[in-house]
Amino acid sequence: MTIHQLSIFLENKSGTLVKVLNLLKQEGIQLIASTIADTAEYGICRIICSEPVRAYEVLKAAGVAVSLCEVFALSLDDEPGRAADAIALFAEEGISIAYLYSFLLGGKGVLVFRTDNAEKARTVIESNGLGIIAEKDLSKLV
Amino acid sequence: MIWNNNKECMPREQMRELQGKRLHKIVDYLYHNVPFYRDKLQQMDIKPEDITSIDDIVKLPFTTKQDLRDNYPFGLQAAPQSEVIRFHASSGTTGNPTIVGYTRKDVGVWSECMSRCLTAFGVTRDDLFSVAYGYGLFTGGLGVHYGVENLGAAVLPTSTGNTEKHVRLLRDLHVTGIACTPSYALYLAETMEKMGVTKDMINLRVGAFGAEPWTENMRKEIESRLGLKGYNIYGLSEIMGPCVSYECSEQNGSHVCEDHFFPEIVDPETLEPLPYGQPGELVFTTLTKEGMPLLRYRTRDLCTLYDGTCACGRTSVRMGRILGRTDDMLIIRGINVFPSQVESVILSMPECAPHFLLVVDRVDNLDTLTVQVEVRQEYFAQGFDTFEPIFKLERELAAKLRSVLSINAKVQVKAPGTLERSQGKSKFVIDNRILK
Question: Which of B375, B377, B386 sits opposite A63 (nearest CB)?
């Protein structure tokens, strides 16, 4: 039900992001989605990519402050209002979203997010029959 | 004006005779009351009767900050606990602060010397004097406080913090004198400007500034913004606190209270005494102290001593400005900070790598300390995904640093491998304060 995401601690300094992306490039690993959350001094770069486990090992070996996490990825129809409907289901159960980002892939909308209660979120997804994306399907698309 | 004409203007030969007598007495007292000094003197084959004049001081052993640490908390205390009426503590480098006990006589000597300082600055019984050094374990607040009372002027014990209230009291009570760090004086001026209080609306005429290095330019700025005359005051808690030396109206160096604190300048490498006029490490021997007398205490401050009768009439030796330190100690908002203290805190946090950088700045005339520290890669690998664990780590580190350093430091987490690696200890520090 979850997919792998790389979370990378980066300082707000030119060149730090390029270093990470070049490491992935050299290994032929492709980005599917990425986002950066920032504060005044540093940020977290979150990446969904073609081979997350290998990417994690590569970055770790290079000394990058990286972790491999599991996040939910919902597949939604590409039409207005679907994200609102999906998130409302979590809100009704009192589940908070820690962060969220979305992208379009293969004619579908994809919502990637972390909640403050993974167990409850899992139940919401199952009981409402929400569409999920499996990691192997993501990799197939790239 | 002179508080104690007899002592401050004593002919040199008479002063040296007095110093010799007192030195003999203090060596005898230490020999019989402090095992640390007895052992040292015995090892050097020195008996109290060998010390007959002040010239014999060169035979005596040095005392260092490390000796104070090694003998924490009471190892160097000479007076019995029943005779001690107060303790002060200053920050230590390894978690052990320096503890100094004062007998009733010590507090009396302190007040006497402090009265000499204030009188030299032109303070009289008619003044209302605000003491804006921190009150507490730090010697600044209570030290100046007792001196003002001893002199007969009125004290306003404002301490630090709540600067707006301080400005209102300065204005409403017609306060005429103030003691604080030079950087706080500038912060006070800034606060006044924000509040729309001009220097013509207050009555300050005398400022006693010390506890941190400052410059002639800072003096000019403080004087023009607060409308007062600023004087330098020097002291250190190991020897007494503020009162050890002070400027007179000539402002040609700071007069040392030589009948109580004997100053020497030594070569910091060879420890050979240097003549007046040559810069070196300042060393003090307490000649009359009972609680914790120290022989030839190495202050680590670099300066020059000058002799010769001053135009003010005082005959005492004068200290030039502090030129620097022989160790890596920083003075931040009047508080002594050693990089090794920060290091010990960082090493106690398993999340942190032993790589850090201290950045000292002066923002709005107040010193700020930022501690940059690298976090270990393993820490991130253990499921790091949001900012919260980083913020939490920064808060924990800041709280630990505050309890060890007694000042607030801003903590900045750095990614592994991002801080410059260096050999020299001084590279741990970037001091952006302009003190030239």
Answer: B377
